[in-house]
Amino acid sequence: MKDEEVFTTSSAAGTAKLGKHLAARLRAGDCVAMTGGLGTGKTALVRGIAVGLGLADQRMVSSPTYVLVQEYQAALPVYHLDLYRMTAPEAELGELALEEMLADGVVLIEWAERAQAALPRPRWEIDIAITSQRGRRFTMRRVEDSADAFS
Ligand SMILES: Nc1ncnc2c1ncn2[C@@H]1O[C@H](COP(=O)(O)OP(=O)(O)OP(=O)(O)O)[C@@H](O)[C@H]1O
Ligand SMILES: [Mg+2]
What we know:
24% of the residues lie in helices and 28% in strands. By secondary structure, it is of the alpha/beta class. The protein has one domain (4-145): 3-Layer(aba) Sandwich (Rossmann fold), CATH 3.40.50.300. Strands 1-7-6-2-5-4-3 form a seven-stranded mixed sheet, with helices on both faces. A hairpin with a 3-residue loop joins strand 3 (69-73) and strand 4. Helix 1 (12-23) packs across helix 2 (42-52). The longest helix is centred in the first third of the chain and has 12 residues, at 12-23. The protein is globular, with a radius of gyration of 14 Å. The protein starts with a strand and ends in an 8-residue tail after the last strand. The structure holds adenosine-5'-triphosphate (ATP) and magnesium ion (MG). Magnesium ion is lined by residues 42-43, 63, 82, 110. Adenosine-5'-triphosphate (ATP) binds next to helix 1 and helix 2.
């Protein structure tokens, strides 16, 4: 069985705090793929992760609208992708040179369900569910690279 970790929050600030907590686990080469649908709190979580990774000004973090990738200069580069507006997300993700981003930084992907087959491995997946107006449940799991996929 896959190991899963579940976290719950009850405010956007709580989600940012969770992001800071999770940032302590992240190193260059890590990818976090977020799923869950509209308004679940993906950007709020990214904000917390980026701050946890050393970004001074969290106001810089918003969903990339006019560019495919936003890069934040934290203690290491943080690459923020949002697949929501991509018309062909798997193809577009494939053209983005994720390997180069992962060589020196952390890659955070919103709407990862739109490009499931093109996501980097290994990666963290965080699925977010809305449990009440301000309640959110985060289910985190590790997806290993293909060589380990059946272990
Ligand atoms: N526990 C919570 N965690 C995060 N956001 C919350 C929470 N409770 C309420 N909210 C609200 O939900 C919204 C989440 O917005 P956010 O942009 O982070 O979501 P998103 O998943 O990135 O949305 P989108 O699908 O548009 O990219 C905000 O308005 C925020 O204030
Ligand atoms: Mg968002």
